[in-house]
Design goal:
Rossmann fold; 3-stranded mixed β-sheet; elongated; 8-stranded mixed β-sheet; alpha/beta; binds adenosine-5'-diphosphate; 2 domains; 356 residues; single chain; GMP Synthetase, Chain A, domain 3
């Protein structure tokens, strides 16, 4: 008697002409193989009731069996209609990446936890890159606490939408030479965003993928704080080149940085980390810009970077002006203070790291 493997290897020679020449076996269309004395019955599963190629495939399968089966063994091919097995669940089928087709480097700005100044760094880095002459966009993916509208003085503005065929596009808000997009533009001010789980995840992917970014050298993605499923899904579905991690120098931040680092180095994500930005590295009083007070000890960021094999992209002091400019919507990186220049230095380093 023939073995099932032999029958399958015969059917491997039967290709589906409309499915990239994949065989019936690769397409998982072989529902059943029944082997009896003197007869082999194969059942093919079709995803649709009226598959235009059904007759052709049944005929090809039968011909292949007759050609290879020993003399006198009958070949029969039956069919059954069945939902096709879903292709490996990597990406939802409707993920349309065409809005990113002219975007050079997509870089996530991440932190293991909130409050370390991730958004401040993201916004200022975007402005600094634009000052260096790059075309820059920033997507505020911090759906729980979108701060980009406030930090850029664009709150209350409403992005325009336009229709192109059956797709609706959203135009980013432009200011300071940067294209900004945030879920905050679509929520009433002060209204808490209570999205959780998949809904938040879809909202923020849509906010990146449905935007007509146009031509950009850099698209920074201000990631939500933390390191949960939403992050992994975001990094897997948005074609990010890599990420920058923002931290404060305190020892207690170490565990959070480790989580952030592990997230990107995780096998299912595996994206390069361009380095660490240490925020709030020292305190400089407004009136004495030359003074530095290391409230959390010196070189905490450098030690963390070394520990995780990362480059330290730069250090940003705590200065009143950074918070004030965040509140007033005029990012610090627009100015010429030492902290403004620190953002420019980080932008320059990042630019050269990604070869921009
Ligand atoms: P995250 O995005 O990590 O939650 P934010 O960027 O929103 O953090 O910053 C939290 C608060 O700290 C904001 O009010 C911001 O203006 C302030 N802040 C961040 N970095 C600095 C800094 N280097 N100096 C002074 N204030 C800062």
């Amino acid at each position: 008697m023939m073995r099932r493997e032999e029958i399958l290897s015969i059917l491997e020679g039967v290709k589906h002409p409309a499915r990239g020449e994949q065989s019936l076996v690769e397409l998982e269309m072989i529902k059943d193989v029944e082997i009896q004395e003197g007869a082999v019955t194969v059942t093919l599963a079709f995803p649709k009731r009226r598959d235009p190629l059904a007759e052709y495939l049944i005929g090809s399968a039968r011909a292949a069996l007759i050609r290879h089966l020993p003399e006198g063994v009958k070949a029969e091919v039956k069919t059954v209609v069945e939902e096709a097995p879903k292709p490996a669940q990597k990406k939802p089928l409707d993920l349309d990446l065409s809005g990113l087709s002219e975007v050079g480097h997509i870089i996530g700005i991440a932190s293991g936890k909130g409050g370390v100044g991730k958004s401040t760094v993201a916004v200022n880095l975007a402005v600094a890159l634009a000052r260096l002459g790059f075309k820059v966009g920033l997507a505020d993916a911090d759906v729980y606490g979108p701060s980009v509208p406030t930090m850029t003085g664009t709150e209350g503005q409403t992005p325009q939408a336009f229709q192109d065929g059956d797709k609706e596009w959203i135009l980013p808000i432009e200011k300071y030479g940067v294209k900004w997009m945030s879920i905050g533009y679509f929520a009433d001010r002060g209204q808490a965003l209570i999205w959780r789980g998949p809904m938040a995840c879809n909202a923020l992917k849509q906010m990146i993928l449905q935007v007509a970014w146009g031509e950009l050298d850099f698209l920074l993605v201000d990631m939500p704080p933390g390191t949960g499923d939403i992050h992994i899904s975001l990094v897997q579905d948005i074609p990010m080149e890599g990420a920058v991690i923002v931290t404060t120098p305190q020892n207690v931040a170490l565990a959070d940085v480790e989580k952030g680092v592990n997230m990107f180095r995780n096998k299912s994500v595996a994206k390069p980390l361009f380095g660490l930005v240490e925020n709030m590295s020292w305190f400089t009083p407004e009136a004495h810009p030359e003074e530095r007070y290391y409230l959390f000890g010196r070189d905490g960021g450098a030690a963390m970077a070394a520990r995780f094999g990362l480059d330290l992209l730069g250090q940003i002091p705590i200065v009143q002006g950074i918070r004030e400019s965040g509140d007033s919507g005029e990012p610090a990186a627009l100015g010429s203070r030492p902290d403004s220049l620190a953002f420019l230095d980080i932008a320059r380093t990042l630019g050269s790291k990604v070869g921009a």
